UniProtKB/TrEMBL annotation:
Alphabetical keyword list: CBS domain, Chloride, Chloride channel, Ion channel, Ion transport, Membrane, Repeat, Transmembrane, Transmembrane helix, Transport, Voltage-gated channel
GO MF terms, alphabetically ordered: nitrate:proton symporter activity; voltage-gated chloride channel activity
Listed InterPro entries: CBS_dom (IPR000644), CBS_dom_sf (IPR046342), Cl-channel/antiporter (IPR051280), Cl-channel_core (IPR014743), Cl_channel_pln (IPR002251), ClC (IPR001807)
Location of this chain's protein in the cell: Membrane
UniProt similarity note: Belongs to the chloride channel (TC 2.A.49) family.
PROSITE patterns in the record: CBS
Protein name from the UniProt record: Chloride channel protein
PANTHER family registered for this protein in UniProt: CHLORIDE CHANNEL PROTEIN CLC FAMILY MEMBER, CHLORIDE CHANNEL PROTEIN CLC-A
Membrane topology: Multi-pass membrane protein
Length: 631
């Protein structure tokens, strides 16, 4: 009889594993197929590319409509597949895509022509909209309006100004109001699980935060552990991403197979490891007709392989949604809810899965996996302290999550506010600040932040705020001399010459220099986009002469000159057109930023970044030296 029961149980577990793995593989295939076939830029979190864009480097199709659609559907599928990733990074990318599309009234090919949209058709407003979109994404992910603003300030934006502060704050305020409105509508149960809970995701305000001087010792230890583990996680993740880049270079099929392989490995881990831990008995006060509460859908307890009245604590973490897993591990006044072995296994599993999941061809975020890893070792330390501390185990989990986040991402102010808005416990502020500062300091001793590592791995140039040491000993003139000769144009240039320059180089701007006998005069700087617009509209002159202002205003509007540059291959000119002339003076910025060739590179970098420049001209000390330029 016992053998028959064991056989039935084994068959039930095998069937459950088949359904579990099959569903996860199907959802992963949907997410990976969409990313690989339709929008490769939708894979990953998107935050490094957003940082690069706001720093001056544009990634093609990063904010397109196809990227937005694939990001939304792929994120839902990837998170539902049980992969060790979060929705927070993709939400930031989704927010920036929506902002970019709204700013230009639609896609590149099909967009609205409303007059008021022309006011956003310039580089500065595009950057502001992208920044507002990023802060709105963080706000939507964590329901943290102030944290979203500070995230944009600390992590994403390169150039910040006072007007951008209230714009991002207004954006996050709208997000919170809309979220709250949907929650009120869904509180009656008409929207499933969407309306459950409030704006506070992981509320730990019910516990009293009290600590004595000796409690600062484990708090400092948590900060040190977070810095060490965060830097180690960054180092190992870099190795894995380099391996994945070699696999992904082989083609689309290998990207799909890699994603499915990771999904299969994840399903095996999530399903098999809970069998290794013993069952725990529910507190008698929590039993409902002898059954642990919320075994069915979501909550603190999962029965899994345990008899009635018992629960599997590891399954309660692994088989819950990420948000519910965080709530479980952040739970306060529950000193016996999780066994040490379960927390240790959970930490090890999420470390391994986090390393192997990030980098596959699906939309993914780093926030939630790192929070879960950090909260696991934080709660373990709280268990080890036992009666020697007055701090609750759930609060140790909060501190552990904050420390690992800071140790990996190297953020402090924004993380501090995000965690305060997540947990709704202002009394945690002093020790949270201490943990974040320690973990960031320790992590900086080993390697850069995870986003800086990804930027370097993807080959996206990024101009740091702090110049490197060698820049102090090198002048901009010496730096320009080591580069190829600058490409310049004359004030009145032949169409053939302009076309040759645009095809031979991909610079965004060109100095306009008039050379006469014994004299060289800098007229200014002309943008590539303006040159292509002039060629496209065929605003040519039959002879070499300067034009009047009214001639230019008849042909061009501010909207024409604010549009992004098109491809030079789209320009079609006849042989007669090629022999004509263009007066570049009306399209030239006559007052560009310039520096003397004897200025140090460090000073030039500070000027370039702080003012938010795109071009900087290097002027010679003497007329005979000529004129050179750098970007």
């Amino acid at each position: 009889m016992l053998a028959v029961v064991d056989f039935i149980n084994q068959k039930r577990y095998i069937t459950g594993f088949a359904y579990f793995t099959g569903a996860n593989l199907t959802l992963t295939l949907v997410a990976a197929f969409l990313c690989v076939m339709f929008a490769p830029t939708a894979a990953g979190p998107g935050i490094p590319e957003i940082k690069a864009y706001l720093n001056g480097v544009d990634t093609p199709n990063m904010f397109g409509a196809s990227t937005l659609i694939v990001k939304i559907i792929g994120s839902i599928a990837a998170v539902s597949a049980g992969l060790d990733l979060g929705k927070e990074g993709p939400l930031v990318h989704i927010g920036t895509c929506i902002a970019a599309l709204l700013g230009r009234g639609g896609t590149e090919k099909h967009h609205l022509r409303w007059k008021w949209l022309r006011y956003f058709n310039n580089d500065r407003d595009r950057r502001d909209l992208i920044t507002c979109g990023a802060s709105s994404g963080v706000c939507a992910a964590f329901r943290s309006p102030v944290g979203g603003v500070l995230f944009a300030l600390e992590e994403v934006a390169t150039w910040w100004r006072s007007a951008l502060l209230w714009r991002t704050f207004f954006s996050t305020a709208v997000v919170v109001v809309v979220l709250r409105g949907f929650m009120e509508y869904c509180n009656s149960g008409r929207c499933g699980l969407f309306g459950r809970g409030g704006l506070i995701l992981f509320d730990v305000s019910s516990v009293t935060v009290k600590y004595h001087p000796m409690d600062l010792v484990p708090v400092v230890v948590i900060g040190i552990i977070g810095g060490v583990l965060g830097s180690l996680y960054n180092y190992l993740l870099l190795k894995v991403l380099r391996l994945y880049s070699l696999i992904n270079e082989k083609g689309r099929l290998y990207k799909l197979l890699l994603s499915l392989g990771v999904s299969l490995f994840t399903s095996v881990c999530l399903y098999s490891f809970p069998f290794l831990v013993p069952c725990s008995r529910c507190e008698p006060s929590l039993l409902n007709e002898g059954v642990c509460p919320t075994n069915g859908r979501t909550g603190n307890f999962k029965q899994f392989n345990c008899p009635t009245g018992y629960y599997n604590d590891l399954a309660s973490l692994l088989h819950s949604a990420n948000d519910d897993a965080v709530r479980n591990i952040f739970s306060t006044s529950t000193p016996t809810e999780f066994l040490p072995i379960s927390l240790l296994i959970f930490f090890a599993i999420y470390c391994i899965l986090g390393l192997f999941t990030f980098g596959i061809a699906v939309p993914s975020g780093l926030f939630l996996p790192i929070i879960l890893m950090g909260s696991a070792y934080g709660r373990l330390l709280g268990l080890a302290m036992g009666s020697y501390t007055d701090i609750d185990q759930g609060l140790y989990a909060v501190l552990g999550a904050a420390s690992l986040m800071s140790g990996s991402m190297r953020m402090t102010v924004s993380l501090c506010v995000i965690f305060l808005e997540l947990t709704n416990n202002l009394l945690l502020l002093p020790i949270t600040m201490l943990v974040l500062l320690i973990s960031k300091t320790v992590g900086d001793c080993f390697n850069p932040s995870i986003y800086e590592i990804i930027l370097e791995l993807k080959g996206l140039p990024f101009l740091d705020a702090k110049p490197e040491t060698w820049m102090r000993n090198l002048t901009v003139g010496e730096l320009a001399a080591a580069k190829p000769n600058v490409v310049s144009l004359r004030g009145i240039e032949k169409v053939t010459r302009v076309l040759e320059v645009l095809k031979a180089s991909n610079h965004n701007g060109y100095p306009v220099v008039d050379r006469d006998v014994g004299m060289t005069e800098l007229q200014g700087l002309v943008l590539r986009a303006h040159l292509i617009t002039v060629l496209r509209k065929k605003w040519f002159l039959p002879d070499r002469r300067r034009t009047e202002e009214w001639e230019v205003r008849e042909k061009f509007t501010s909207v024409d000159l604010a549009e992004k540059a098109r491809k030079i291959e789209e320009i079609e000119l006849t042989e007669e057109d090629m022999e004509m002339y263009i007066d570049l003076h009306p399209f030239t910025n006559a007052t560009p930023y310039t520096v003397v060739e004897s200025m140090s590179v460090a000073k030039a970098v500070v000027l370039f970044r702080e003012v938010g420049l795109r071009h900087l001209l290097i002027m010679p000390k003497y007329q005979a030296a000529g004129v050179s330029s750098t970007k």
